[in-house]
Amino acid sequence: MNTKIFAPTPSAYSSPLLIKSLLTTPLIYAPQQKIFYRDQLEFTYKQFGKRICQLAHALSKLGVQAEDTVAVMDWDSHRYLECYFAVPMIGAILHTVNVRLSSEQLLYTINHAEDDVLLINSEFLPMLAAIKDNLTTVKKIILLSDNNDVPEGFDGYYEQMLQGQPEEFSFPDFDENSIATTFYTTGTTGLPKGVYFSHRQLVLHTYGVLSALCAYDSQARISSADVYMPITPMFHVHAWGMPFLMTMLGCKQVYPGRYEPTLLLKLITTHDVTFSHCVPTILHMLLSNPTIAGCDLSRWKVIIGGSALSKGMCKGAMAHGINLYTGYGMSETCPVLTLANLKPHMRKWDETQQVTVRCRTGLPINGVQLELFDASGQPVPHDGKSTGEVVVRAPWLTQGYFKDEEKSRELWSGGWLHTGDIGYIDTEGYLQITDRLKDVIKTGGEWISSLELEDIISQHPSVSEVAVIGVQDPKWGERPVALVVPKPGCNEPLHTEDILAAIQTHIDNGTLPKYGMPEKVLIVDQIAKTSVGKVNKKQLRRDFS
Length: 545
What we know:
Layout: H1 21-29, E1 34-37, E2 41-44, H2 45-61, E3 69-73, H3 78-89, E4 93-96, H4 103-112, E5 117-121, H5 125-131, E6 140-144, E7 156-157, H6 158-162, E8 179-184, E9 194-198, H7 199-215, E10 227-228, H8 237-240, H9 242-249, E11 252-255, H10 261-270, E12 275-278, H11 280-287, E13 301-304, H12 311-318, E14 323-329, E15 336-339, H13 351-358, E16 363-364, E17 369-373, E18 388-393, H14 405-411, E19 417-425, E20 431-436, E21 441-443, E22 446-448, H15 450-458, E23 463-473, E24 477-486, H16 496-508, E25 520-523, H17 537-544
Helix pairs in contact: 1-9, 2-3
């Protein structure tokens, strides 16, 4: 038996996994690389590094200390990126505030997170006015603005605050398990739940996504030569963690501010953006904009997440040359769990075969252990047919909900994080989410996947958007109802009979059970969305019950 014990040398450096470690290499490797804000501002990584130090000094002078919480309300901007680094690097906690919450939810999240300092874009001052008198912990309010025309009565102004501050800062070492960020889930009923992530979790997530996006021979490999623009709000799960990764790689970055379709397309073409990520609603907004007709998008790689990617939308995007595929995760998972990378042999397939894989929920990225459990908590086979709840383990998953032990225990029941999603894993190892547990339609003792029906309907050439919900039925328990938004500019008007005929084809060939035929198909002008652009099925069920 080998009885050797290798004890660490007392003088050895422990190398904690801290966010500041993500910034070291790009400042050496790409100091002259550019970061752009809309069409208004540009600066180099070298200047970016100096501004982070200046922000750290400014926050320290405001009295921000380790474990204090700094909240940010801003559009996707260079300022937000600076806060991603400076706030946690001084040992404080960054609260990325969802600016699309109701006043009641906004007040709740700021007070519940015990925010000490609030950095707020001047565009959101009416929102602040509605809640300011009821803030219980905020001591300082700093104004962010794209111009110098700022009102009085605040504790500081972002650019003025940075001016004159030293351009170097000695960022301390501390426990890598210290909390770095917090934000709140976008629940459509009840109060939002606070999730939080440590430095260690964020660094490990960055390296996990690095290996999945950059190392494998796939259809959309990323490198330091890519040009990055997020189209996922930076308040939503760290913009899926991509700003940390793209900064670590030293990529050219473009931050678009408020999402305006024409400007987004202009920025993509002007800066030759090659990598973005967004929810289907945002992509639909771009595909529907007339400006897209003059845009060359043949180098643009886009990850779709937040909601299922339909085959109809995938085909529509690929017709514009967009290299589109799916990613999957949730607020509680930091968020990336899977990516629908094509395996090398699949890149020779025709478009129809590829679209099926591109719309899969994806392969687990390095570091993710993913299983499917049945109702009794037992694993189900990975045979492409057997379904179960998706449960996961990874080094970067949240430990729980802030100040909510009961919900935290439910989340981690049995030592696995429970996603609340139902799916199957095919023989190639790809996960396919078939529905949310709360969205699956239970009719006559059988389950119908709302996502499967949406996927079928989305492929009709006259359909722009679709959502399928279950509504109560006295005989069957629930029946599916499809809400369909017609594609603008179609020569032929869209009729419910067209949709029913398309669905009947799938029933006839056996790919959809006969009880999958919707009870109703409603042609509507729009479909309700959540604050982060997902289809709001809770609201739809209330509206159409």
